Amino acid sequence: MNREPSWDVYRTFAAVLREGSLSAAARALGLTQPSVARHIEALEQAVGGTLFLRSQRGLSPTDRAIALRPYAETLLATSAALLRTATAGADVIAGTVRLTASEVVAAEHLPPVLTALRRQYRELSIELVASDAIDDLLQRHADIAIRMVAPTQQALLARKLGALKLGLYAHADYLAQHGEPTALADLAHHDLIGVDSIGDLSRAVLTALPGLEHGDFALRVDNALVQLGAIRAGFGIGICQVAVAARDAALIRVLPDAFSFDLPLWVVMHEDLRSSARHRAVFDALVDGLLDGIPQGVAIG
């Protein structure tokens, strides 16, 4: 391997992977396209192989590039964490804190919590990643995470808030047209909304709905906000957080005695951030705000 490339080269490599072309990466980074091309050429010389192949759709990463992707992403996350850590002193509630939360929690529960936080700490800024993927806090992909699974990694400060309750819901207009199911077996005759990809959570949900299979769902989409939007639009019956549905009188819970599902709710932070005033302030605000904001849907554990 040749001389170690500069940090800018790795940043450019990650941008090309993400954007899929030199021109798009250049726009994202604020560079010229020739500069981006030179960075990729420099990295290819350093690693001794081709990283991208040209195609009609843009640039396709080679196996070598795909193997390097997680290391480039770790470099980016570390760089961003370094900058956030350096933006304010340990005793000052100012600077940037990066959060990650599921799509529904981010859209439906966090806005009032973050609004109150902003009003209290004017020098604090928040980066929010709305994703159902579980970011690695040990790699500092985020500073604080709101998770629906118990943390398994060591060196994490975690607070369990209880469980978010889920139920089956439909819009009143849908039920007026199609009728309300009286037993789980009736669901087979309704328009159902569910996930497309089968994972651990979806398997657990299907287990709680005996007699239903993946193909029985009329709308299958992995984005939880799209599922919620479809329920609100009257498409059919889907799973919704009890606390979210309680805010909309048009959403009617069906078969409450036959189906109920609990998602554990955790707020998690790397223990090294315990002594940081701004991270602790955000952590505590999330715990207090979530407990105050969704009492109907949380069973304290």
From TrEMBL:
Entry superkingdom: Bacteria
InterPro entries, alphabetized: LysR-type_TF_proteobact-type, LysR_HTH_N, LysR_subst-bd, WH-like_DNA-bd_sf, WH_DNA-bd_sf
Record keywords: DNA-binding, Transcription, Transcription regulation
Chain ranges of the HTH lysR-type domain: 11-62
Pfam families: HTH_1, LysR_substrate
Family: Belongs to the LysR transcriptional regulatory family.
Record-given protein name: LysR family transcriptional regulator
Origin species: Novosphingobium pokkalii
